[in-house]
Amino acid sequence: MIGVIPNPKKTVNVDYSLEKIKEAVLFIRDIDKNYTLTSYNEIFHQYTYQTTEFLSLGVFIDINLSAIGDSKTEITIEIKRKIGAFDKSYEVTLANEHIQKLITYISQALQFTDSQKAAINEKYKPKEASIEKLPETTQFNCGICKKSFYANSTITNVVLCPHCKSSNSLPRVEPPPTTAKKIQAAIVLIIIIVSLYIIFTR
Description:
Helix content: 25-40%
Strand order of the largest sheet: 1-5-4-3-2
Strand content: 25-35%
Order of helices and strands: EHHEEEEHHEEEEEH
């Protein structure tokens, strides 16, 4: 134990425009699948990633960008524990490793060719939602035409309305479990009950 300390943070200035850095930050999720983009605000240039750690729920990583002139950008990376605060030396070490990795990944992303960028961006184009009820989907109402459609907001948070083709930002809603998932959950519950029975009847 080293006592509770502030969240590890690092600020660097790079000789690239804000637009190039914004693009590079989004590519982190494709360079290392261990980092998941959970939210971002393009107006305030704020991005949040999350990752898990061994024997830990892991951390959230806030990335804030600020333009310094036309061709220079300030990048601030702050690591926050998902639960609790930093109070062990190895936690701080891991946090600093995350910071260094993300700086490296941003640097790598800045070297991507136009064809590489296009291939990655194609994956994140809004998908058209379905009018039909499909497994693991939730019903939403279009913000423009008000008609209903179905989508899985745990996979994408922006979809095209199948009626009017407008983009819709979706709140994250866990879809109802499928029959297979219900069976799987039931099996896990039975295993837990049997294990507890064995333990307490010995």
